[in-house]
C-alpha cells in the first residue's frame, strides 16, 4: 500500500502563499488515514463473523440431520470398546436342518468392583458371599483392601443375582452389559456345539468366542458382524438327536457301560443327522478339562469323533466285499474255517466251532475270524490297505468339528501277513465310530465315496467309486442275513429291513500292553432299510455287560444291538420312513413285515 505523506511540500508551499496554517494539512491527512484504517479493520471483522456464523450454521444442520436419522432408525445393540479396541459383540445363531435354534445370544451383565469407590468393604464381602456361595469372604476382603482399583467378580450373572447385588447398595459394585451364548436345549448335542466363552473383554462389552465343536470350527464366520443376521445351519435333526440321546443313555445305564456313542448318517449326502457321545455336559456351564488321568474319562471327550477303538467284527464286511469285487470269491464260495491259524507266534481262533467250512455269506453271518482271515490272505496286505484307504479308514475325517483332525486312526507299524488277517476282523487298526459310519455309507449306498459333514447339504454330490453297485447290493444282502439269522437277531425292527454287523473287541490295557479279559468295546454298525438304503447307524458301548439268559453277557449281540434297534424304531418315523406292509393274500389281512 502506498502511504501518502502527511506534509506534502507542494501543499505546504501553497498554504503559506495563501496565509493558511500548514499544520492543519498534516492533521487533516492524519485524520483521513485513521478513518481508512478503521474502515478496513471493520470490514475484516465483519467478514470473520460471517464465516464463523456460517460454520456454526453448518454444524447445527449436521447435528439436526443426524438426530433426525437416529430418531427414525431401529434400535440396535451397541458395540463396546476397551482400551481403545473395538469389541464385536454380535454372533450368528446356530440352527438344525429344520431351522430350530441350537445356539443363540442373550443379554446379561457382568459384575465388577472398584474398591476406591466402596463404602463398606466388610458388608459388601459378606453380602456377596450370600449371593455367590462359591466366593471366599476373606479373599474378597483382601482384594477390596488392596491397591487394585478394578477387579472382575463375575463374568456373567442372572437378572435375579443382579437385583440382589443392587440391593446391597454398595456404590463400588458395578455392572457391565454382556452378550452371552445360550444353548436352550441344555446337554442336547453338546459335543457337536462344543460351547463358547469370552475373549477380549471391556467394561461395556465382551467378545464371545468358540472353545470347541462347531463353535470353535466356525468361530470366524460366527463372529463376523456381517453374518449376525444369518444362521449357521447344521445337518443335525434336533428331534432325532433327542431320541438318539435318550435311548443311548437308557441303554448305557441298563448295560452298565462306562461310555457310549452313536452316529446316524445319510448314506448319500454324508450328512450327520445325529451324533451323540456319553457321558456329556451342559455347554451353558462347560466343565473344566481334566488335568490328570485319562482324557477319555472327561465328559468333554467326544467318543464318536475323538475315540479311537478296535471296532472288531464290524470290519469283516470290508474284506468280504473287496474279495468279491476282485473276483476272488462270491457269496456262495466255501471257505475253510478249520482253526486255529498260526502266524508269527499268534493263534487266530473262532468264538465257536463253525465246522470245517462256511460260505462267504455265512462267514459274515456267523462272524468267523478264521474264515475272514483266510479271505484276507487272498486279498493281500497292499490291496487291503488301498481299499481301506479308499473308504477313509486310514486318515482323519474331514467332519467340521475342531476335534476331528486330531483323530487319526492307529495303524499297524508293519503291515505284514498277521496284520492283514487281524485287521480283517477289526483288530490292530483303531478308528472312530464316525470313521466306521462313513465307510459303511460308502460301501452300501451303491459304492460311491461319502464325505461326512455336519453342515446342511443341498442335493447329493457323488464321490469317487469305491466298489461296484452289484457288490454293494451283495454286501447289503449279507448284512441283512446277519440280522435275520445271525449274531444281530435282536436288531430286527418290525416294518424296516435292518442289516448290520456286530463287533465285540477286547479292550486294550492303558499300560503294559495286552487286552483285558473282562472288558470289551461292543459295536453294531447297521443300515436301514437294507433293500433301499437311506441311513447308516453305528452304536458303540464302552465296557458293557448285562446278565441275560442265566449268564453275564458282554458281546455286541446282547448289548449294542438292542440299543441300536430301539434307536431305529424311534428315529425311522421321525426321518419320514414309512414301515413296509406285507400283504397276506386272499385273507385281506395285512401285517408289518419283519
Structural features, described:
With 594 residues, the protein is α+β, with helices and mostly antiparallel strands. The protein has three domains: 9-59; 88-233, Penicillin-binding protein 2a (Domain 2) (Alpha-Beta Complex); 260-287 and 294-317 and 381-390 and 407-587, DD-peptidase/beta-lactamase superfamily (Beta-lactamase, 3-Layer(aba) Sandwich). 36% of the residues lie in helices and 21% in strands. It is built from 17 helices and 22 strands. The protein has helices at 9-18, 22-72, 121-131, 137-144, 159-168, 190-193, 213-217, 219-223, 238-254, 316-325, 360-366, 369-379, 381-390, 417-424, 433-444, 469-485, 560-574; strands at 80-82, 85-87, 93-95, 101-113, 151-157, 173-182, 195-201, 206-212, 231-233, 259-266, 272-278, 334-336, 341-343, 346-348, 357-359, 499-508, 515-528, 535-542, 546-548, 551-553, 581-583, 590-592. Strands 3, 4, 5, 6 and 9 form a five-stranded mixed beta sheet that branches. A five-stranded antiparallel beta sheet has the order 11-10-18-17-16, sandwiched between helices. A hairpin with a 6-residue loop joins strand 16 and strand 17 (515-528). The longest helix has 51 residues, at 22-72. The chain is elongated. The chain starts with 8 loop residues before the first helix and ends with a strand. The relative contact order is 0.10.
Amino acid at each position: 500500500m502506498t502511504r501518502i505523506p502527511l506534509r506534502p511540500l507542494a501543499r505546504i508551499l501553497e498554504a503559506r502563499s495563501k496565509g493558511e496554517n500548514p499544520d492543519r494539512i498534516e492533521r487533516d491527512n492524519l485524520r483521513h488515514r485513521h478513518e481508512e484504517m478503521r474502515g478496513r479493520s471493520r470490514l475484516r471483522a465483519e467478514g470473520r463473523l460471517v464465516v464463523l456464523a456460517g460454520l456454526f450454521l453448518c454444524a447445527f444442520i449436521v447435528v439436526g440431520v443426524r438426530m433426525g436419522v437416529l430418531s427414525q432408525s431401529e434400535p440396535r445393540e451397541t458395540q463396546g470398546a476397551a482400551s481403545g479396541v473395538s469389541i464385536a459383540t454380535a454372533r450368528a445363531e446356530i440352527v438344525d436342518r429344520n431351522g430350530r435354534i441350537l445356539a443363540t445370544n442373550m443379554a446379561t451383565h457382568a459384575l465388577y468392583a472398584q474398591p476406591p469407590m466402596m463404602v463398606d468393604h466388610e458388608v459388601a464381602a459378606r453380602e456377596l458371599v450370600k449371593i455367590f456361595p462359591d466366593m471366599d469372604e476373606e479373599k474378597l476382603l483382601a482384594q477390596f483392601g488392596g491397591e487394585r482399583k478394578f477387579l472382575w467378580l463375575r463374568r456373567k450373572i442372572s437378572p435375579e443375582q443382579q437385583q440382589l447385588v443392587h440391593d446391597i447398595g454398595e456404590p463400588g459394585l458395578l455392572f457391565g452389559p454382556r452378550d452371552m451364548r445360550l444353548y436352550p436345549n441344555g446337554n442336547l448335542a453338546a459335543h457337536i456345539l462344543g460351547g463358547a466363552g469370552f475373549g477380549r473383554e471391556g467394561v461395556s462389552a465382551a467378545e464371545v468366542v468358540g472353545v470347541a465343536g462347531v463353535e470353535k470350527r466356525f468361530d470366524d464366520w460366527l463372529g463376523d458382524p456381517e453374518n449376525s443376521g444369518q444362521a449357521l445351519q447344521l445337518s443335525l435333526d434336533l428331534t432325532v438327536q433327542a431320541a438318539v440321546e435318550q435311548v443311548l443313555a437308557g441303554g448305557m445305564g441298563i448295560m452298565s457301560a462306562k461310555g457310549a456313542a452313536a452316529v446316524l448318517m445319510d448314506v448319500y449326502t454324508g450328512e450327520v443327522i445325529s451324533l451323540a457321545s456319553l457321558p456329556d455336559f451342559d455347554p451353558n456351564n462347560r466343565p473344566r478339562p481334566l488335568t490328570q488321568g485319562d482324557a477319555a474319562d472327561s465328559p468333554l471327550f467326544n467318543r464318536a469323533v475323538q475315540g479311537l477303538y478296535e471296532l472288531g467284527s464290524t470290519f469283516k464286511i470290508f474284506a468280504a466285499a473287496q474279495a468279491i469285487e476282485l473276483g476272488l470269491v462270491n457269496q456262495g464260495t466255501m471257505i475253510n474255517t478249520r482253526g486255529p491259524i498260526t502266524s508269527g507266534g499268534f493263534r487266530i481262533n473262532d468264538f465257536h466251532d463253525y465246522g470245517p467250512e462256511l460260505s462267504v455269506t455265512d462267514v459274515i453271518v456267523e462272524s468267523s475270524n478264521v474264515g475272514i482271515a483266510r479271505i484276507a490272505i487272498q486279498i493281500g496286505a497292499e490291496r487291503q490297505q488301498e481299499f481301506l484307504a479308499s473308504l477313509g479308514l486310514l486318515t482323519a475325517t474331514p467332519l467340521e468339528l475342531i476335534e476331528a483332525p486330531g483323530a487319526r486312526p492307529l495303524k499297524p507299524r508293519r503291515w505284514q501277513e498277521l496284520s492283514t488277517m487281524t485287521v480283517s476282523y477289526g483288530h490292530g487298526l483303531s478308528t472312530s465310530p464316525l470313521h466306521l459310519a462313513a465307510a459303511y455309507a460308502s460301501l452300501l449306498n451303491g459304492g460311491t465315496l461319502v464325505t461326512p459333514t455336519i453342515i446342511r447339504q443341498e442335493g447329493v454330490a457323488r464321490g469317487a467309486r469305491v466298489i461296484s453297485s452289484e457288490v454293494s447290493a451283495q454286501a447289503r444282502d449279507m448284512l441283512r442275513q446277519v440280522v435275520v439269522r445271525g449274531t444281530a437277531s435282536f436288531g430286527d425292527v418290525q416294518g424296516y429291513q435292518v442289516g448290520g454287523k456286530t463287533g465285540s473287541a477286547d479292550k486294550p490295557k492303558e499300560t503294559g500292553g495286552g487286552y483285558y479279559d473282562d472288558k470289551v468295546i461292543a459295536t453294531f454298525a447297521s443300515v436301514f432299510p437294507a433293500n433301499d438304503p437311506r441311513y447308516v447307524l453305528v452304536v458303540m458301548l464302552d465296557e458293557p455287560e448285562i446278565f441275560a439268559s442265566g449268564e453275564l453277557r458282554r458281546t455286541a449281540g446282547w448289548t449294542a444291538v438292542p440299543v441300536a434297534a430301539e434307536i431305529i424304531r424311534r428315529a425311522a418315523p421321525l426321518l419320514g420312513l414309512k414301515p413296509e406292509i406285507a400283504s397276506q393274500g386272499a385273507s385281506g389281512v395285512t401285517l408289518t413285515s419283519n
